[in-house]
Design goal:
The protein is an alpha/beta fold. It has 8 helices and 7 strands, in the order ααββαβαβαβαβαβα. Strands 1-7-6-2-5-3-4 form a 7-stranded mixed beta sheet, with helices on both faces.
């Protein structure tokens, strides 16, 4: 009974916090781009921080950021990370607070029938990859996204697994999207890792497991720009090895 009441309070608080922004986006999108952009900035800069405060207070949610390598970050960079839940997006928005990040995601997130999420991500200029469609369409979208990132000083974030991990294990890394962005932007590559998000990667387990996890994020290493196919494949291989090493360390009880 108390858990159900707690869940209800969390949902009620989140709805109260996000409802005005959601209503604004639904009302103004896509006719008033600047207004929608400001609303999206408010969601990213204010609401996302409040989200984690609410979860910590009501659900004992824990969030641990390791930023000891942040001094090595250049002005602009590509982020490579594993992917465990939809919370990875607001996690990285907070992890890189003060540095604009934009995500490569499946186009299902861009649909207007997903309240708040679709209009916010579209108005903020993220990249959406269709599940169905030729590789030429995918590459055109990535090229356009890369151009926007360079023009606006955004930092592109890509999940080379292509989908969320259901059990926390690292999946196969796909190189095409990363290589295209690396070719187009010629930016350094920041390798990051998250963990524990897989325990809440579907609606059924969000409220059940929220109090059990310690959502971690860490910057592992910054690589110089990968300008050749060989360099790009090598960066992906090393990134995956670094992520696995850190996941193993965390899961064996080591903090860092």
């Amino acid at each position: 009974m108390f858990r159900a009441l707690g869940n209800f309070l969390v949902l009620l608080t989140l709805i109260g916090m996000l409802a005005p922004s959601a209503a604004g986006l639904l009302l103004f999108y896509p006719f008033f781009g600047k207004i929608c952009y400001k609303i999206s900035d408010y969601i990213v800069g204010v609401c996302s921080r409040r989200l984690f405060v609410i979860l910590r207070v009501y659900k004992k949610f824990r969030l641990s950021f390791s930023k000891k390598n942040f001094e090595s970050l250049p002005e602009q960079f590509i982020v490579l990370s594993n992917h465990q839940s939809l919370l990875d997006i607001p996690i990285y928005m907070n992890f890189f607070r003060g540095r604009d990040v934009r995500f490569v995601a499946k186009d299902a997130l861009s649909k207007n029938y997903i309240p708040l999420v679709g209009p916010m991500l579209k108005s903020h200029g993220h990249c959406f990859i269709p599940r169905k469609g030729g590789s030429s369409i995918v590459m055109q979208r990535i090229d356009s996204f890369s151009e926007r990132c360079l023009r606006n000083k955004w930092n592109p974030v890509i999940f080379p697994e292509g989908t969320r991990s259901k059990d926390g294990s690292l999946g196969k890394f796909y190189s095409a999207g990363f290589r295209r962005i690396a070719d187009s932007t010629r930016l350094p590559v920041a390798v990051c890792v998250v963990d524990d998000g897989w325990k809440i990667n579907d609606i059924q387990h969000v409220m059940e497991n929220m109090h059990k996890i310690n959502y971690r994020a860490k910057l592992l290493k910054v690589f110089p720009p990968a300008l050749t196919k060989e360099d790009q494949v090598a960066v992906l291989d090393q990134a995956r090895a670094l992520m696995q090493e850190q996941l193993d360390a965390w899961r064996s009880g080591k903090e860092d």
